[in-house]
Amino acid sequence: MLDDFIFSLSVALPIFLIMLSGFIFRKKRIITVEFIDAANFIIFYLALPIKLFNSVAESSVTENFDIRFIGYALSATIISVIIVYLFSVFFIDEKSKIGAFVHGTFRGNFIYVGFSLMENVTGSIGAKTPLIVAFIIPLYNIIAVLILVFTNPANKAKNQLKSAFKNILTNPFIIAIILGAAASLIDFKLPLILQNTADYFDVLATPLALLTIGATFKIDKLFVDIKSSIFATILKLLILPALAVSTAIAFGFANEEVFLIYVLFGVPSAVVSYVITAAMNGDQDLAASIVMMTTLFSVFSITLFIFLFKVFAIV
C-alpha cells in the first residue's frame, strides 16, 4: 500500500511542481508577460494540435470510435452542469455569481493538466482521448455561453452563440483531430523528417502548458470569494469525479475508460473558464478564485484518486 501511495504522489506532485516553477519564474521576472503570450500561442496553435494529430493518426479511428463511451462522457458532462447549477441556486447567495460558479466548476483543464496526468500514469494520452476532446470541447463552449447568457440576460445571446460556433469550427484542436482521423483512415504517414520534428513539439506541449499555467497564477485572487470557491473546489475535485467514476464502473466500462472519465471530471478548473467568464461580463474575480483554488488543491485530490485506482487495480 505504501508503494501505491508513493506512485500516486509521484503522479500528482510533478504536475504541481512544474506549475509552481512557472509561478516562481514569473515572480522572479524570468518569465515575462511576453513569454506567456508567446508560449500560449505555441501551445494552442502548434504543440497541442500536433500532439492530438499524432495520437489520432497513429491509432485506428474505426476501432476506437466508441459511441457508447462518447455518449456517456457527453451525458455525464451535461448532468454535472445541472447538478452544479441546482447546487448554486440553493447555496450561492449572490445570483450574479452563479454563471461564474457553474462555469468554473464544470469545466476542467482536460487538455493541459489532463494530458499530463494521463502521460504520467499510462505513458500516453491514449487512443480514445482525442475523440473525447473532439466532442467535449465544442460542448464545453456551447454550455459556457448558454449558462453565462442565462444567468446574465444583459449578454447578447445570438452574438455569443454565433461566436461560440465560429470558435468551434476554427479551433486548432478540432482541426488537428479531423486531420489526424483522415490520416488514420487512409493510413497516411508523414515523411520521417517531418514526423521527427512533430514529435519534438509533441513532447514540448505538456510541460510548456503547465509552466504557463503556473506563470498566470495570481494568489491575491484566491481569497476573493472564499465560500463559493470552497464549494466549487469540493464539487470539482471530489463530488463530480466520484459520481462520474462510480457510474462509469456501474456501466461496465473498461479500466482505461474509467480512468479517462476521472481525468475528464477530476482535473482542476480550466484557465479559459476565467477568460470566457470575463469576456461575457460574469464575475471574473470568482472565476479566477475557482481556477486558483482547484489547481492548488488538485495535488491532494489527484493523489487520493490515483491511490484508490491503484488499490483497486484500475490503473
UniProtKB/TrEMBL annotation:
Q: How does it sit in the membrane?
A: Multi-pass membrane protein
> Is this entry keyworded Transport?
yes
Q: Which Pfam families match?
A: Mem_trans (PF03547)
Superkingdom as given in the UniProt entry: Bacteria
Compartments reported by the entry = Cell membrane
**Membrane spanning residue stretches:** 6-26, 38-57, 69-91, 98-118, 130-151, 172-194, 229-253, 259-279, 286-309
In Swiss-Prot or TrEMBL terms, this protein is called Auxin Efflux Carrier
Query: What is the species of this protein?
Result: Halanaerobium hydrogeniformans (Halanaerobium sp. (strain sapolanicus))
The taxonomic lineage of its organism, from the top, reads: Bacteria, Bacillati, Bacillota, Clostridia, Halanaerobiales
